[in-house]
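Hello again, I could really use a second opinion on something today. I've been staring at a protein lately and its backbone has me curious. You're getting the sequence in one-letter code plus the fold written as tokens. I'd be grateful if you could look everything over and explain what you see. No rush at all, and the record is pasted right below:
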Amino acid sequence: MALLSGALGAAVALLATRQRWSMGTATVAGDAFPLSAKGSDVTGVPAALAIVGLAALVAVFAVRRTGRFAVSALLALSGAGIVVAALLGATDSSALDDKAAQASGDTSSVVHAFDHTAWPYVAAVGGGLILLAGLLALFYGRRWPAMSGRYERNGAPRVRRAPVVDPDRPEDIWKALDRGEDPTGA
């Protein structure tokens, strides 16, 4: 459930940041000039945190114990950050004001008739799904299986076996010479 929730939340948040969040009109040379701003124009935080959340979601299954707790907390915080940034960006008109200033050439130009779409709230829902995945990982993560420790080293030095030299195989004799061993002696 957490994996599905986190992946769906990241996809929704990333999709929502590519959509139009706000619209307005600016006065340019006496005429009304329509402007719009995508979510990535308003704030880059939801998209960045969605990528962080996606990476944390994968990492939650790769680590154990304290690492899993830390990654789960990062996952939950990235979801909460997306929610906050998206809700703050829903009423932000500064991206449109910047576009109005570029279009008119006047830095004091502002947007009139500001309107916003539902996409910031969709991004907030995506962040909520990532937050849910993080909370599930925090509370139930210690019971989840982890990656195998089969290939981990325990810190003890490995014991190397001496290679067996077969005197009937010339390549073994040459390899022994390359290692600095005397293949003819015992």
